[in-house]
Amino acid sequence: MGAAPAPGRFVVFEGGESVGKSTQAAWLATRRGACLTFEPGDTRLGRELRRLLLDERAGGLSAVTEALLMAADRAQHVAETIRPALEAGRDVVCDRYIGSSLAYQGYGRGLRLDVVRELSEIAAVGLWPDLMILLDMDPLQARARDDARDDARDGARDGAREDARSDRFEALDEAFHRRVRDGYLELAAADPGRWAVIDADRPAPVVRDDIAAVVADRLGWK
Ligand code: TYD
Q: Phi, psi (5° rounding) for residue 18?
């Protein structure tokens, strides 16, 4: 029997709404030949949880329920997708992970950060990313960009992910988005070895160049 492959590296994109995470995550995964995944909703169970989470958000899920469902999605995602890929020697690029729970359920919804962290660690069985890339942007700027994109598309969103996203976005107010943004910046400042902050309020190719530089510097990805 051959030796087990060296485990892959685990990179996560974090940030508020419409900062371009999905586009950049897809770009990096393709460039690196990594497994591309996202939260919430990238397993069979996760798709059900995502529907509950995003449909019900406007209708009054409690903050604790929301945190528990996010954790359940994460537990399944780690067990089914992320850990097997890493153990098989594949790199993994994920669109949102523990940082989202800390920023949204902790700073945004006001749950205790240590409780949210503990829940996520239970769900992830201690699996933290090697690198979390925070795409940082003022939430009003991000929203303006999103509206401009919608106009350009004449509202023609397709796919379950996009539909749910726009509903949920309408339901959250500006103060919430500010707490999320400030929370992310605080998390990154407290743990600069694991986080990299990139100004996302610039053209996508410029942001991409910064991402390439960060993964080269931190992980040796050329
Ligand atoms: P999504 O459509 O994936 O949004 P985006 O394109 O902005 O990533 O919706 C996911 C939503 O779920 C988003 O508003 C952030 C939220 N979320 C949490 O509140 N906590 C979490 O732990 C995760 C993973 C996501």
A: 60, 35
